[in-house]
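Action item from last week, closing it out:
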Amino acid sequence: MQPKAICTIGYQGATVDAFLRALKKARVDLVLDIRAVAASRKKGFSKNQLAAHLADAGIAYRHLRGLGTPKRGRDAAHAGDLDTFESVFLAHMEEPQAQFDLAEAVALAKERQICLLCLERDPSHCHRLIVAQCMAGTTGQALDHLFADPANL
């Protein structure tokens, strides 16, 4: 059997309904939240609310905090300094907790249709692309970047 793709999604600009439709369309059964801080000013996307919405949709939720971007990296990303952001995040990925959570994410991706979650809509400006590429390098799976745009669903 051919491995499933590793999906990624950002909820920036999305509604909860559009977000859930995108996940269901891709047949995601487990969302791996890889935000360092699983809180959001956007209604419905903080950890407990998000987990409840996902559960109602029949999708499991797991927060892998070790795969989140450290504050210094988030600050650099917000400032548009993508080189510093990437440098900080790559160094963070060498840390024991990041390696532990990466191994868990890889194991789960081999068993289930997973989707890596973060805020940033564009995967090329988000650490989830780096995580997904690391995972795919181990599993051989393709990447599928999902978009929760209400107009496109």
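Closing note: Residues 29 and 58 are 7 Å apart (CA to CA).
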